């Protein structure tokens, strides 16, 4: 029976536009799949993705767990004899797939194009300005000791964030389901054909330990220098630093509502210490990422708009958090409150836009790992 291939040339053009312009020189030697520390005989990549994109096979390329199995170590770029930059193609496919599976679609597009940046900042700015206007804090800052909850009460912040994050979690879940179905379709099985439940714990453990990142560093392909030296430790630091900040924020909420323990909390308080240490860890790790992405461009692949945006927002969120604390301690009211306002906007950007920014890897990589494990293709 003849197989009809319908190339989507627009898809190919868009992937090339996402910094994968060297892919057409690939002559399918397979070196990239052989040197990739994560690829296996059962689930080889990135050679097949190269040919799928060359042929414009959008459904195959996007309905595929391997694009998220890749951890961007750059080994394939280093060893490709044609300098076709397969790691760039994998990164471009990931960027494209975040926008492709986004629910609602326009949010995926908004996070992938710089011209929508003002709109993305305007949304939280208007929400917080409306709250401040309602409270009468737009025209006059609270008097006396600087207490951020006098300026923007915790309850208002929580209602705004819970509503927005609730919506974005629905978007994340729907996007994950679309991706899961696409992978099942591509593999020729029904979406219920896999049983992911028994792989949930092992997949989560892999993620928490960053096993794949470690694998990138542990299995050197040869003597050539790659981008992967710092990958495991830096990613682990960002992950646990971020988790520390989440635990800090949650603990503050519990402290206020369950024990009436109002902010600001003293420096020596364990939760405060956890927040400050976590913030320092995130700033240090993001700085390493930024530096390595600049100096290792040839190996890691040139960073895309979504790479820079994500790292910049994560860094600015943490830096403005520290700035708020310093300005409060220095009793600079006129600066502390506006900085807190900006800090809230960055937090909103970071958390509410998770399913549409590069941060969406926490959704799609998890789904891909689960799908690969439940279909027996776990690398
Ligand atoms: S990307 Fe490079 S290493 Fe991979 S198959 Fe093509 S030419 Fe070979
Ligand atoms: S960047 Fe690393 S993990 Fe990704 S395909 Fe290349 S060698 Fe494999």
Characteristic terms for this protein:
379 residues; mainly alpha; elongated; binds iron/sulfur cluster
Secondary structure layout:
Elements lengths: L8 H9 L13 H5 L11 H8 L3 H5 L3 H4 L5 H5 L6 H16 L3 H8 L4 H19 L12 H4 L2 H34 L12 H10 L1 H8 L12 H29 L10 H26 L1 H4 L4 H25 L3 H20 L8 H14 L5
The protein binds iron/sulfur cluster (2 copies).
The site of one iron/sulfur cluster has 15 residues, from helix 6 and helix 7.
Account of the 3D structure:
The protein has 379 residues and is mainly α. It has 2 domains: 9-101, no CATH class; 105-374, no CATH class. Helix content is 67%, strand content 0%. The protein is built from 19 helices and no strands. Helix 7 (86-101) packs across helix 8 (105-112). It starts with 8 loop residues before the first helix and ends in a 5-residue tail after the last helix. The relative contact order is 0.15. Residues 36, 38-39, 45-46, 70-76, 86-87, 90 line the site of one iron/sulfur cluster.
């Amino acid at each position: 029976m003849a197989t009809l291939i319908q190339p989507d040339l627009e898809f190919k053009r868009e992937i090339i536009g996402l910094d994968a312009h060297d892919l057409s020189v690939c002559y399918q030697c397979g070196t990239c799949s052989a040197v990739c520390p994560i690829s296996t005989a059962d689930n080889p990549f990135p050679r097949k993705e190269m040919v799928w994109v060359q042929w414009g096979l959008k459904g195959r390329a996007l309905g595929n767990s391997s694009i998220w199995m890749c951890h961007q170590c750059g080994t394939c770029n280093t060893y490709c004899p044609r300098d076709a930059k397969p790691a760039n193609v994998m990164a471009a496919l990931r960027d494209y797939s975040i926008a492709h599976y986004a629910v609602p679609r326009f949010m995926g597009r908004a996070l992938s194009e710089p011209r929508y940046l003002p709109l993305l900042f305007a949304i939280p700015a208007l929400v917080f300005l409306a709250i401040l206007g309602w409270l009468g804090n737009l025209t006059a800052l609270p008097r006396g000791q600087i207490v951020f909850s006098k300026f923007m009460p915790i309850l208002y912040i929580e209602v705004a964030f819970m509503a927005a994050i609730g919506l974005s979690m629905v978007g994340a879940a729907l996007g994950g389901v679309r991706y899961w179905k696409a992978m099942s379709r591509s593999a020729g099985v029904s979406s219920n054909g896999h049983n992911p439940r028994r792989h949930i714990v092992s997949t989560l453990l892999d993620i928490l330990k960053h096993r794949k990142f470690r694998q990138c560093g542990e299995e050197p392909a040869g003597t050539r220098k790659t981008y992967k030296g710092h990958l495991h430790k830096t990613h682990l630091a960002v992950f646990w630093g971020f988790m520390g900040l989440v635990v800090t924020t949650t603990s503050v909420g519990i402290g206020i509502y369950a024990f009436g323990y109002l902010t600001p909390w003293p420096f020596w308080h364990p939760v405060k210490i956890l927040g400050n240490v976590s913030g320092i860890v995130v700033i240090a790790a993001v700085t390493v990422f930024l530096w390595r992405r600049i100096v290792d461009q040839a190996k890691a692949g040139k960073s895309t708009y979504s790479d820079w945006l994500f790292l910049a927002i994560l860094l600015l969120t943490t830096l403005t958090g520290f700035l708020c604390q310093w300005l409060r301690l220095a009793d600079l009211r006129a600066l502390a409150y506006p900085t807190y306002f900006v800090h809230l906007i960055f937090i909103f950007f970071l958390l509410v836009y998770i399913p549409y920014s590069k941060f969406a890897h926490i959704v799609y990589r998890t789904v891909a790992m689960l799908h690969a494990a439940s279909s027996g293709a776990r690398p």
